[in-house]
Task: structure prediction
Amino acid sequence: MKVLEINGGKTLEGTIRISGSKNSSVALIPAAILASSEVTICNVPEITDTDALAEILDYLGAKVKRASESIVINPTTIINKEIPEEMSNKLRASYYFMAVLLAKFKHVEMYFPGGCSIGARPIDQTLKGFQALGATIKEVENRYIIDAKKLTGAHVYLDMPSVGATINTMLVAVKASGETIIENAAKEPEIVNVATFLNNMGAKITGAGTSEIKIIGVDQLEGCYTEVIPDRIETGTYLIAGALAGKNLKIDNIIPEHIEMLILKMKEMEVPIEVGSDYVIISKSEKLHPVKIKTQGYPGFATDLQQPVTVLLTQCEGESQLEETVYENRFKNVPYLNEMGSDIKIIGKKIKIYGPTKLVGKSVEATDLRGGASLILAGLIAQGTTTISNIGPVLRGYEHIVEKLTDIGANIEIKEV
Ligand code: EPU
Result:
């Protein structure tokens, strides 16, 4: 079994370069299937989630070439066949294949997608989008058979601004005839990245990044080149590391606007932070003010940073509060943080954090990707050794995390035990 071992208390100095966004890449890779010739996607992170998608593409018969930071996909040889459950349940994003195979072949058979266990995570809004565009869906247990004689543009209202449902509806609508309008669309930067990619292929999408997206379907999409945006959640995670243990730590290659909600909260806490055009320089402060945070869709406070920021709140003086409004089960890291010495109470959808508390190294478990990241952050400031088991979820989402943290002075390694 692999574990992550961290000896805490080291100062983090130097520069950390942010990788391409996981949540963009995992949508861009399946979207490549829609092109009728070769596609190049640059700045793709080397994480197990992108490996799993490349494996699915390969299984479907596409030609995939992976260089260090880019992926070249030739989808012309693709065959429409059912993706085995053990491949699709490795990650949430496998359901983008549902959309692109439906758009391309008007028929798809697939299992319910995987992903971190942080809530029920139904896909009803995605299915609603497909149905609105003309698909019929047969659902047998966790398997879906989706057919469409014809895909026709429609007016779709999402009951909540779901990132997945917005992208899935967009992926089908680009090939449907006529106009589709997605109302109450999610506004995350990853959606803009996907829309830009599709537009580079020849799609006609306007309004991505707002709550109303308009798509005019086209017959043919051509191969093209695109670049993945910097990962705003990785950026936020390292910003938090800097606020916990940094000394003029530079977080480079970022889009500060994408992480503004965290920067503003950090300013409220009085974290010393300098924001540049594509970087941030951050240091630890001896005294931090408590704050209240509520997770929301973009541009609100990202749920994916809720667990990491909890660690910073353990170092604020007094009571901080954090309300999780997106997922029902995203506090699984809290008992482990409390074992390490924090004082956090879970009250329904809220947690109250009393600080500052000294943290001590313990043996803990990464129950999910961002929960695992929060335990790494705690380990960086804990006294003694923190050993984190079940590190698979962390490696799904953070490129070269051990190397990046080692380069800035952390004492962290993966060990076989
Ligand atoms: N929801 C429904 N029905 C649907 C779709 C969503 O009820 O059909 C609910 C979900 O259960 C959840 C909320 O709506 O409570 C938001 O879900 P959304 O669809 O926006 O999330 P997602 O597309 O499944 C992506 C990211 C998540 C991130 C969320 C929110 C990917 C692969 N995943 O998930 O990332 O938390 O958007 O920003 O893009 C992570 O990176 O750790 C992660 C979980």
User: Anything to note?
Assistant: The first helix runs from residue 22 to 31. The chain is about 30% helix and 25% strand. The chain has a mean pLDDT of 96. The pocket of EPU is lined by residues 23, 26, 92-93, 116, 119-126, 160, 162-165, 186, 188, 233, 303-304, 326-327, 369-370, 397 (CB under 6 Å).
